[in-house]
Every structure is written in structure tokens, then in C-alpha cells.
Amino acid sequence: MEELTPTVDSSASESNHNFKSRNFCLLIYPDEDSTHISALEYIRSRFQYAAIRHDSDVWTDADEKHNPEHKAGTLKKPHWHIVARFSAPRWRSALAKELGISENYVQRCASFDGAMRYLVHADNPGEYQYDPESVEGPLKPILDKLLLQLSEDERIVKILDLLYSLDKKVTYYEFVKLVCAHGLFSDFRRSSVIWIKLLEEHNNQFAE
Description:
Helix content: 40-55%
Number of helices: 9
CATH class of the largest domain: Alpha Beta
CATH topology of the largest domain: Replication Protein E1, Chain: A
Number of strands: 4
Low-confidence stretches: none
Number of domains: 2
Radius of gyration: 23 Å
Largest sheet: 4 strands, antiparallel
């Protein structure tokens, strides 16, 4: 089985640990196990889910250090990452039994949004970046919306780009109004002292 991802609740990683949850992260190996083929088809026909086949993941140096059999740079076995959401909490053991797979392939998502984004490695630039169009399932529109959301770093860079795209002096009032027009005031407000200095730096370029 592949190493647990950051989006999985590690406290629920033991195969004999049962729990209830509405959101589950599933790891499926249809190429290796015929019962997983049936489980995938069952999920497709009955669950609210988003899923993707990972066939370009490679083992890292850290993986090899943890397990010498996982040679860094070599491909991992193809597998499916699946995020399933239910309207009411389900027991892990019952879900695994329903799917006909071992409980260790059924984990609680530490973060639903994080698990969804992990399907394409959106927050893991060092890993293979999968095409969002490769994701299937009724929950895919949620992933599409999540991918449109910028990270805090990306929002800060956007404010910087707004400032340095201006080719003239601007007042603090004008700059704040511009930031608000792009829906970035909350990020601007948290670092207002820094932005005042950067605005001054920008305006100095146009000093007479």
C-alpha cells in the first residue's frame, strides 16, 4: 500500500481502528486486485465521489529511506485516489465491508478540501501535476471551484502585480480602492504597514 498522504488523518491509520466520518479518502489498486475493480465500479454507481488514476507518481528519497524497496525515482504502482462524501457519518468498517476491501484502504480525510486538491497534487508542486480533466465523479465541480481559489501567497503576488503594473504615482486611497476592486482587501489589511512601504517605493520611481 502507498504511504499515507498529508490529506489523510494519520490518527485513523491503524487497520483495527474504527471510526465514523462523512468524508473518506480511499486508495484503490484495480490493476493489482480484482476486488478493487468491483469496489471502483460500486463507488461509481452509488457514491458521491471524485476520483483519479495516478500512474505517474514516483518514489522519493524519503520513501526509499523509509523503505529500501521503494527506489527513489522509480514509478509507483498505478492506483486510484478517491474522495467520497456521505450525507451522514458512516463507520469505516461498514464501508470497507460494503466495498469488499481491507479497512487499511479506507481512511478519514484530515481535510476534505485538501483531499480534493490532492487528487491532482495542486498543493504539491514537487509531485507530478495531474490534469483536472482526468478527475471523474459527481464531486468534480467542487474540485473545479477549489482550483480557482488562489492561495495566500498567490493573492499577495497578485497585489504586487497590481501595484507594479501602474506606470504613475498613486495615492494610498487609489491603491486601496484598486485592491478592493479585485477582492483582495483582507490580505492587504493584514500587511498594511508593508504595503505602505511598497507604495512609497513604487512612487519614488516617479519622483520629479
